[in-house]
Predict the structure of Immunity protein 35 domain-containing protein.
Amino acid sequence: MLDMEEATKLARQFLDQEVSHEGMAFALVEGERTQVGTAFYFDCQSVAYLRTGDLRDMAIGTGYIRVDGETGECRMLGATESAQLDLF
């Protein structure tokens, strides 16, 4: 079973390697992380929005990053699925 530190590292790697792309880099939102059962959830947003707060830089339609605490598998949830979880 992963701990929060290990899950955070995997979530950051996932964002860097699988989600961020030319034109929009993503980062974890500080303090917006939790564990539910064996899964870890992290809120994320575009680096530009986190830096400036300018709504034009906000990534829309993305959801939380879910890290499976048993396997380490990461996936980005959709906005609707994330809203239903209502974690943050």
In short: Strands lie at 26-36, 39-46, 62-68, 74-78.
